[in-house]
Write a structure and sequence with these properties.
Length: 426
């Protein structure tokens, strides 16, 4: 019989399954509290892809809307406006997305949509396939639209303050547009104009991979100063276990029966994931799928990890296929990456790589030159002969993939990506 699998590889985790990030949530709640009381604060969440930025944003939105009670501040009542950016978005697109989503969100609230109607004049001429500016036969200047957006946000809160504590505007995938989209200029001018208008109940939050900080500075050198910055790190061991157990509790509720997990299998999910939420979800999902007797054990973990379309293959295809397989035709080159992964994304000298790999100097030199050219490894600025992998999650995947294969071979099991078989005994 089919069973509901509660784990969600590659997807945003719903608040009921959200684990960890308590310190970050406490700090974000305090930002909302300050904004509620007219002292607006803004935040930026950054970290590697798949580290849980979007899930944290969604959880905060639930808290801001009052659908979840906060840890310290009771219930909030914020109007929440959330947008996602795309690589092709320009400055006008950013303004348009925020304005259009603000309009949509307000109109979902029956009690306030009538009173807020007069705030939407500047959006009336906006069409799906293009922009018309209040019926004028010309493209609006960015400063005009930004001024109108600022006015509209101010008026929206003024007209709805009996219903809401403030307005929370979140921009996810903030790293995607190029610096030429001038997101940094937008956030700087937008927040300053709101303050000049005396509108102190608007909080702006951004989320993106770590490069978003440099992109913002390229657009406006002081733009990052308006934010409290949160760097997301991998989950701690007890938080990883909490993710697994919450998932199994949800499965029990949905399925009407319990699926349990052995301590050893639970620890394998925790250890090989290194605390990356998307790794935890994928390993747990694959082990759950592999289980046939409602007890997830080591055989289920290994089988789910190494079988065809299993966890390692899925993670490789989704995140690292180009870096580890498509761009590299030599096992010796991959051996360099495996040696470097033991240090995660820390700097490693060529001498240490040579010692760990024992490959010929000529081959090593060729490997390093090729890997640098393809941007698979990063040279240390101003320091010859030192390199690192581009991000920690790539290192974790290589390390886990290599270590898991060694442990499987040592245990006498015959599973692996190459054999595409289930674990021994399955």
């Amino acid at each position: 019989m089919p069973r509901y699998n509660p784990f969600r590889p590659g997807s945003i985790v719903t608040p009921g399954m959200f684990s960890g990030r308590v310190e970050e949530l406490l700090a974000l709640e305090r930002i909302l509290f300050q904004t509620k009381n007219g002292n607006p604060q803004h935040f930026l969440i950054h970290g590697e892809r798949g580290i849980g930025k979007s899930s944290l944003l969604v959880c905060l939105q639930y808290i801001a809307r009052g659908e979840l009670e906060s840890y310290e501040c009771g219930n909030f009542r914020f109007l929440t406006v959330g947008v996602e950016l795309e690589p092709a978005n320009c400055y006008l697109d950013i303004i348009r997305k925020v304005g259009a989503e603000l309009q949509r969100v307000v109109y979902t609230h029956q009690r306030v949509k009538d009173v807020a109607k007069k705030a939407w004049d500047f959006l009336k001429g906006w069409e799906v396939m293009g922009i018309k500016y209040s019926g004028k036969d010309r493209t609006p200047q960015p400063h005009e639209l930004l001024e109108d957006l600022t006015y509209t946000v101010e008026q929206t809160f003024k007209e709805t303050k009996d219903e809401f504590d403030g307005i929370l505007i979140t921009i996810d995938e903030a790293d995607k547009p190029a610096a030429e989209a001038n997101l940094g200029e937008f956030v700087k001018i937008f927040t300053e104009r709101l303050m000049k208008r005396g509108c102190g109940n608007v909080c702006l939050g951004l989320a993106g991979i770590s490069g978003v900080l440099e992109t913002l500075r390229e657009s406006h050198e002081s733009s990052t100063r308006i934010f409290e910055i949160f760097t997301l790190e991998p989950l701690l061991p007890d938080e990883r276990v909490e993710v697994i157990r919450k998932g199994l509790e949800e499965a029990k509720t949905k399925n009407g029966f319990e699926v349990s997990i052995t301590h050893e299998a639970e620890q394998c999910v925790s250890m090989f994931s290194e605390g990356y939420p998307h790794f935890i979800q994928q390993f747990a999902y694959s082990a759950f799928q592999e289980d046939k007797d409602n007890l997830i054990d080591l055989n289920d973990f290994w089988g789910g990890a190494f079988k065809e379309n299993g966890a390692f293959q899925q993670l490789g295809l989704k995140y690292f296929q180009g870096l580890y397989f498509d761009k590299i035709g030599s096992d010796e080159y991959r051996e360099v990456l495996r040696a470097m992964s033991k240090n995660l994304d820390n700097w490693v000298t060529k001498g240490q790589i040579r010692k760990d790999t024992k490959i010929k100097s000529t081959t090593l030199n060729n490997a390093i030159t090729s890997l640098k050219k393809r941007k698979i490894i990063v040279p240390k600025p101003g320091k010859k002969g030192e390199y690192r992998l581009p991000n920690k999650s790539f290192a974790v995947w290589i390390k886990a993939y290599t270590q898991a294969k060694e442990e499987v071979c040592a245990s006498g099991n015959s599973i692996g990506i190459e054999t595409k078989r289930n674990a021994e005994g399955k």
